[in-house]
Design goal:
homodimer, about 240 residues, alpha+beta, Arc Repressor Mutant, subunit A, Chorismate lyase, 2 domains, six-stranded antiparallel beta sheet, two-stranded antiparallel sheet, 7 helices, DNA-binding
Chain lengths: ~240, ~240
DNA sequence: CAACCTAACTTGTACCAACAAGGTGATCGG
DNA sequence: CCGATCACCTTGTTGGTACAAGTTAGGTTG
């Protein structure tokens, strides 16, 4: 795999300092000139990194003043319920069965999400998850081939916690990005989820990330009438509903 | 007024062509070299413009191939990305207008969310938000009466940032909880959002929290075919698809 | 003293050059 | 005819320079 580019390394270093708190909320980052010297990179490269952070909403830039850590929303990320060995919960679902294991060449979209070359081989684990009597979901997890080589994830068996397996091989999940959309189901989805007519589906794409790279992409289709998705952010100690 | 910078002009020109359809969905943009000549700008400047479009989700870039018009262009709602003076998000939130201001006695559900007694008076601000030409959303923000007493939020006028107003009065947002559901629209929603038949809606309930209490509940209905909800968690420095 | 002005910082924009690396198609050799 | 190779396209990354424009501190001037 190709090395991580310089500006991504710089962005990662700065991001870590922001999250650790060495750069306090609202605090000013070193000037671009100082960052040049510290990372031994050109101003162009430093600015690429800063642009990435600005784009992720972590910093704001004020011409003539400097770059500052965004402080509108606090960065206390102890939400979303750490669970078990994984830092974040794998699933709220009661159980899951592996339906199919498949080798698949990555199309453009998947390659972009996993940050591998288009056409690269990936391992797909398709699962049916169920919880309670009504709701179910169809789920496909995509792994870059080099990550799962020689792990139980290559075997057609149920795995307790895929993220733990990856963590044992040096790829620890440190974050994720979820994308949610809704649309009407296609006939296959409708029959698999046993959907009544007129019920849309909730489509979720989760990208699990280690510090260095995307380690898994999970695509899940939920039955729209039996799912409510909840996200918590920041300090939610004041949130208690009866 | 300072002139619009070169790369923004280029981005605007290309964006217009994409939206007008002269550049078809999925179609390939001229190469960077061709754009250099066409706009008489350096490659760096052209790339700044392209980066802006890529960031707005209008195009995708494939190394060795070219830049292509994104064929599905759902607007991405960045759930937990702070809204600041982010220059890249200018198209995300083109504007909003206050449709109605109303006093409402809280029903059981709302009272539970706001943690006020049932029947308590609340202030409702209904808004129509638009972004670009396609997507829109209907949004209702509910405030406990005692929080907005004597603030601009009691006036039937557009407010730049309601959370800033609350913060100035001692109620600073420190977190939020989002709940997401999908269903088919009712006739009112369908007409307000100008939904084609067979398009579901994404229904979001956001509860904004200060350290002590819920300070606002926002209920938003998005057109399902033109919204993508994105939630980021943890260290996502390895994300960034470009 | 107060108002102004300048020097010295900051980020924003724009240019150039070079090489790396992905992708495609033509060409050449078997 | 088929396969390997190479030329030539593409975008990605990194280095440099220069100037514009916003901001601030400190000194100068009236």
């Amino acid at each position: 795999m190709r090395a991580e580019s310089r500006y991504r390394q710089i962005a990662r270093a700065l991001r870590r300092e922001i999250q650790e708190g060495s750069l306090p909320l609202g605090g000013q980052l070193p000037s671009e000139k100082q960052l040049e010297e510290r990372f031994d990179a050109s101003r162009n490269t430093v600015r690429l990194a800063l642009g990435m952070l600005r784009n992720q909403g972590l910093i704001v830039s004020r011409p003539g003043r400097g770059h500052f850590v965004q402080d509108v929303v606090p960065e206390t990320f102890h939400a979303n319920r750490p669970k078990g060995a994984d830092r974040f919960n794998e699933s709220n679902m009661a159980g899951q069965t592996l339906e199919e294991l498949q080798l698949l060449s990555a199309n453009a979209d998947l390659a972009s999400r996993l940050r591998v070359p288009e056409g690269e081989m990936t391992v797909v684990r398709r699962m049916y998850r169920f919880s309670g009597e009504i709701s179910g979901s169809i789920s496909s997890a995509y792994y870059p081939m080099d990550l799962v080589q020689g792990t139980p994830l290559m075997l057609p068996e149920d795995v307790e916690s895929a993220l733990s397996v990856l963590a044992e091989h040096g790829h620890r999940q440190v974050g994720f990005v979820d994308e949610l959309e809704t649309r009407m189901p296609n006939p296959t989805e409708a029959s698999q989820l046993e959907l009544p007519p007129g019920v849309p589906i909730l489509w979720m794409h989760r990208t699990d990330l280690s510090e260095e790279r995307p380690i898994r992409v999970v695509e899940t289709v939920y039955a729209g009438h039996s799912i409510r998705y909840q996200y918590e952010h920041g300090d939610i100690s004041a949130y208690h509903r009866d």
